[in-house]
Amino acid sequence: MGSHTDSTDPNHPTPTTPAGCDGLNAILARPANAVIALDFDGTLAPIVADPEQARAHPEAVSALAALAPKVAAVAVVTGRPAGVAVRNGGFAGVPGLEHLVVLGHYGAERWDAVSGTVNAPAPHPGVAAVRAELPGFLDRIGAWQGTWIEEKGRAVAVHTRRATDPQAAFEALRAPLTDLAARHGLIVEPGRMVLELRPPGMDKGVALLEYAREISAESVLYAGDDLGDLPAFAAVDKLRSDGTPGLLVCSGSDEVTELRERADLVVDGPAGVVGLLRALADQLS
After folding, report:
1. What are the beta bridge partners of residue 150?
2. What share of the chain is helix, strand, coil (3-state, %, to 5)?
């Protein structure tokens, strides 16, 4: 288990667990075999009331571009459509990010900077069915005023952040939305004041494991901020048990304590993540 202790000096990030120290040391010792993987919202981009307005931290792209040429790979692993993350992150055509990979929709989609294209399977039919049913469904169950639906292509999400009581709305909607999702062969992915209905069988952990194995990673860093990042944390634990060192980073949030408790290193939100990326790039120069 990790610690609640934050990294107070962004220029010298210090993990608070032995496994985290091993992971960081392995990355620094053999960067050419290291994968740096990061969530987008809440990790590279500040959380905002309207997800359509989410943009990467102003210094995130330059920090990634400074680090990427020194490691085996940088991957953004997100629940968003890959193309949306690329657009909102400003990742396309950036010198230094020529080999960036974005694993969107929890890994169901993949964008490679090399080709500039998104590869994806056919959409799950349950998503279209839920999309059509959801507005009337929310009306019937008397959903809180201020909840709203986000269209995500291969998924659909219900946000409660704008409700009068966001947490109460979140809790009240969780069970009925889980039932609705199950009727259409979908699952519910809870997040920070959002419940996402999406196809099963893929999560950030599956995506991260497959990618790490694809490129024969010898060490892995994963940074996230939300419940959807827990499978990726579990994937790093799995890699560690198989002999691949890893570093778990929490982009600090008081809304989600589970990641803080499991992280090797806690940083202060996207600004802290940027500081960590720059510190790594500096130590590898």
Report:
1. 157
2. 40, 20, 40
